[in-house]
Amino acid sequence: MPSSDLQTTADIRAAMSDGATAVDICTAYLERIATQDGPIHAFTHVAGERALQDAAEIDADGRGRDPVLPLAGVPIAIKDNICTQGMPTTASSRILAGFVPPYDATVVERLRAAGAVIVGKTNCDEFAMGSTTEHSACEPTHNPWDLTRVPGGSSGGSAAAVAARLAPIALGSDTGGSIRQPAAFCGIVGLKPTYGRVSRYGLLAFASSLDQIGPFALTVSDAAVLLTVIAGHDAADATSSAEAVPAFGARLAEPVAHPTIGVPWHLLEHGVDAGVRAAFDAALDVLRSQGATIVDILLPHSVYAVPTYYVVAPAEASSNLSRYDGVRFGYRAPANGDRSDLGEMYNRTRSGGFGDEVKRRIMLGTYALSAGYYDAYYVKAQQVRTLIRRDYDAAFERVDAVAMPTTPTAAFALGERSEDPLQMYAGDVFTASANLTGLPALSVPGGHDASGLPVGLQLVGRAFDEANLLRLGASYERDAAWWRDRPPVHTTV
To answer: Which CATH number belongs to the domain containing residue 448 in this structure?
Structure first.
């Protein structure tokens, strides 16, 4: 079958049922990456030889024809802050240049056990700190819809890879919107699961109380299948939940009878582009036509989500990134002068190894945790975080999901916000709350703005209620299959 016909995991599994091999599938995707990724730069490492070897083993042992393994023979891309044994994992940072983990993250172990084939690692903002994938030591990723625009971040490489059909599915991490925002900018599906639903063991930590690994896919069905594979308790992660994992994909056809969906209209009064607002209103019309009741809700403390997030996340980053000191692993600055001055070595290593955005957040976090400011900033932020969660708890007493645009704008130009971090941070206005509360949130393609750029529809659900969230998303997708719209194909010369 022509490689251009391979898009979703369902397409791939059907092709294998018709006689295609895992090697055939892997080869087709590696050829796409070779011819199309040059101007996009979604990948930081392509594991061609290893991927073909893994695919050959799947063919040899017959796993590709095993219906119990829905990902057998399916290529997948992995964000570069998730550990992969034998493949580089650098978090797109100079300080981890050349680092090859001796172990797989739990999610990677589960993917391998399910027969998925890892075709490579994807670009990201350094240590997942950013919203554009411009803050990468590996150079920026470009949006496949318009190469002059950002793909979003921090998981921009994974989102761009799926949007450009360089991989049918991918993994990213979401700390303040880093799966959902690039999914919206690139016109694909992105899910941040409930905190604890997916093990974080093997994820290079940014903000430990906010980070969560989740799927990118072209369809809600593919995201559901991928979530089923990676979710579940893990003894290696103390924050991992023992909550039962349903077969999310098998339940998508079950209707959500007359759902009530809340919209916090007060959050949309300022800063939302006209094209985004029009697409959002049209998406609500689709939901209404399917029997949903749309009601106005108040989330009064969510207006403080962005400032709260940018106290909590940098504070945790300051603590987590203290381990990168040039002593135990990673980059160490060359000797300069007095070799016995350990403090000087620390300073030069961290100054040369970290990029500007990471340094900015470490300094913000260190300040918020410092003596005399801890109560005024970090403790106060945690108190507001509790209030935000209570607002959502109250809303879910009367609604089944909360709907918002995923982002206030469509993808903007590369470099447009590089010198204005506050404008950049403001883009998290609709996504940060789900991380602060730990709630699951799904972004699905919600149309296009007047210039043809993708817009995302975000649905937020109750804790560990991804099943209903995915059913709502799948129902919307059946009548608004925006994922079928393909970005321009950019090939290398």
So the answer is: 3.90.1300.10
Is the four-CA dihedral 160, 161, 166, 167 of positive or negative sign? Answer: negative
DSSP assigned state of 194: P
Task: Answer yes or no: is 385 within a domain.
Answer: no
The C-alpha atoms of residue 93 and residue 124 are separated, in whole angstroms, by 9
Runs of H (alpha helix) within 130-171: 156-163
Would residue 303 count as lying in a domain?
no
User: 395: which 2 tokens?
Assistant: 């809303």
pLDDT digits (tens, 9 = 90+) for 290-305: 999 999 999 999 999 9
Which of these is catalytic: 93, 155, 158, 178? 178
Of 209, 217, 271, 227, which is closest to residue 428 (Cα–Cα)? 271
For the purposes of burial, counting CB atoms within 10 Å of the CB of 198, is it exposed (0-12), middle (13-18) or buried (19 or more)? buried
Rounded Cα–Cα distance for residues 26 and 167 (Å): 10
Phi-psi region of 415 (alpha: psi -120 to 50; beta: other; left: phi over 0): left
Which pTM does this prediction carry?
A: 0.96
178 is known as an active-site residue: yes
**Is residue 221 domain-resident?**
yes
Q: Are 216 and 169 in contact (CB under 8 A)?
A: yes
Q: Known catalytic residue: 158?
A: no
CA angle 492, 164, 207 (to 5 degrees): 115
Which residues, including other chains, have CB under 8 Å from residue 238's CB and lie 6 or more apart? Answer: none
Helix (H) or strand (E) segment spanning residue 401: strand 401-405
Total domains in the chain come to 1
What is the maximum alpha-carbon separation in the chain? 72
Domain containing 227 equals 3-261+398-484
Closest CA to 200 of 190, 211, 189: 211
Q: What is the 3-state secondary structure (H, E, C) of 101-114?
A: CCCCCHHHHHHHHC
Q: Which of 93, 131, 154, 443 is catalytic?
A: 154
Residue from 76, 152, 68, 59 nearest 112 by CA? 76
Which residues, at least 6 apart from 244, have a Cβ–Cβ distance to it below 8 Å? Answer: none
Alpha carbon of residue 431 to chain centroid: 12
* 224 vs 228: CA distance, rounded Å: 6
433 is catalytic: no
pLDDT at 1: 42
Structure tokens at 251: 């339940």
Question: How far, in whole angstroms, is CA 351 from its chain's centroid?
Answer: 28
CA pair distance 180, 189, nearest whole angstrom: 8
Side-chain-side CA neighbours of 76 within 13 Å: the count stands at 37
Q: Is 237 within a domain?
A: yes
- Tens of pLDDT, residues 332-389: 888 776 666 788 888 889 889 999 999 999 999 999 999 989 999 999 999 999 999 9
